Amino acid sequence: MSDILLLHPAEHGRTFGGMPPLGMTSITSYLRSKNISTAFVDLQISDLGIEELLQNNKPQVVGIGGTSHTRFESFSLARRIKKFDPAIKIMYGGPHATFTAGNTLKSVPEIDFIVRGEGETATLELAAELLRRNPDVRAIRGISCRENDAVVHHRDSERIEDLDILPFPYRDPDALQKYDLLLDFLKVPAASIISSRGCPVNCSFCSASAMFGTRLTLRSAKNVVDEIEILLKEHGYQGVKFFDSTLTLHKDHVEAICAEIRRRNLVFPWECEIRVNGVSFDLLQTMKKAGCYYVDFGIESASPEVLKGMHKGITIEQAERVLHWTKEIGLFTKVFFTFGHIGETLEDAVKTVQFMERYAKYIDFIATGLGVRIYPGTEVEQSALAQNLLPKDFSWEQPYLDEKIESLGNDPIIPIVIQSGFGWKEFRKLEFRLAWFWIKHPRAALSALRGQIQLGRLKILAKLAYRFVSNLFSK
Asked: Which of 3, 151, 195, 349 is deepest in the core (most CB within 10 A)?
């Protein structure tokens, strides 16, 4: 039995091959460290139904996490929990909840509280208060709730300045074997880890800066490598994936982590995300010597105007330089290109494809995204609303599914930017151009498939190939 039950919803198409949700597992450890009886269940991998979990734990409070992709699963969980026992108080947190707090509370009456932003402090204070005989939540920061039939938003929580005070995320030894996160190309079991919070860049399509703020907070190198050593030696992982928005935002931070890894004589492969304007040849060499074998980075577009519009903060020259460096050093690369940004034209998109063609031999995994997803809390969402690019009746809380979006390889429940100058007609033309790219660069196509084979992605590629061949014979 547990007073607090935290649930991570099941997801259609498991992200990154399946990994523990680090935000919720961090909150679990934090509550337990403060003597709050807490159970955590990831419904991605649990064999138990929600009613059985509630019966076994008999919680007074249930916290539900999730993203925009799992919002309907989160809402369904809340309804099933209230049906099982209306007295259970329900908290809902995460990036989607943070930026849709008002509408969610108005539209989903089963949800009692929204925890906004960085969750540890607000969740602890809210949970502790709800376990009292006569709870009073009016002084708790970082939450939204209903008061006298009106939705109220309490002032934001203060950021946690010293991340080292947080215990390591909870890792259930009985559940870890059910995850199947693997290092790309090497195919060895990998652990996920985050060494920082926040992002000062504030790209238009990303909610990371809005969620944690543009000020970066860092764990110490010792704290990070302490956790890595436990993951390798006690949990049996063979590699590590850093899921920081960008590991190399502070040069001193990543250099200290590399130095600590080497000081302890730890030998393991690891992967991280970088920015092309934030690394040097020497820094990449330092990372390679400490076990880094693979770096991810977003170039997104080869059009300077499009890059400026999305606030990417990089230049094409910087991207080219890093591609040459990684090739010389011997680092695998995953590079992201996305099409359909606000203000982008088909001519801009063609520039990006031409860049991909010039540098295909430098990139081991070319990741393309047709259609820029609209997420709550982002500048892209604000622009989409201002320019009437979302359906008039669109609501994050109401059913939404667009099969045309799925045909581009995207989740059909997340809207994408469709503009008058870059609409479905332009996407189909671009789709055809990209198909030719993969045909002309089979090594790049095979490398991408070898790096990360996912059934859902293969189905999408099969559909695209069928449409491409059909178009050829119809001409």
From this structure: 349
- For 409-451, how does the pLDDT look when each residue is reduced to its tens digit (9 = 90+)? 899 999 999 999 999 999 999 999 998 998 998 877 776 565 4
- Quick check: 184 and 271 in contact, CB under 8 A? yes
For tokens 């809340």, name the residue.
78
In angstroms, the Cα distances linking 471 to 124, 422, 437, 466, 467 are 57, 20, 16, 9, 6
User: How are the residues of the chain apportioned to helix, strand and coil, as percentages rounded to the nearest 5?
Assistant: 45, 15, 40
What domains lie within the chain, and their CATH numbers? Answer: 4-153 (3.40.50.280), 181-474 (3.80.30.20)
**pLDDT tens column, 96-113:** 999 999 999 999 999 999
Alpha helices, H only, 136-207: 173-176
pLDDT > 70 in the chain, percent: 93
User: pLDDT for 319-351, tens place per residue?
Assistant: 999 999 999 999 999 999 999 999 999 999 999
Nearest to 166 by CA among 259, 29, 321: 29
Distance CA 176, CA 197 (A): 24
In the chain, DSSP finds a helix count (H) and a strand count (E) of 19, 15
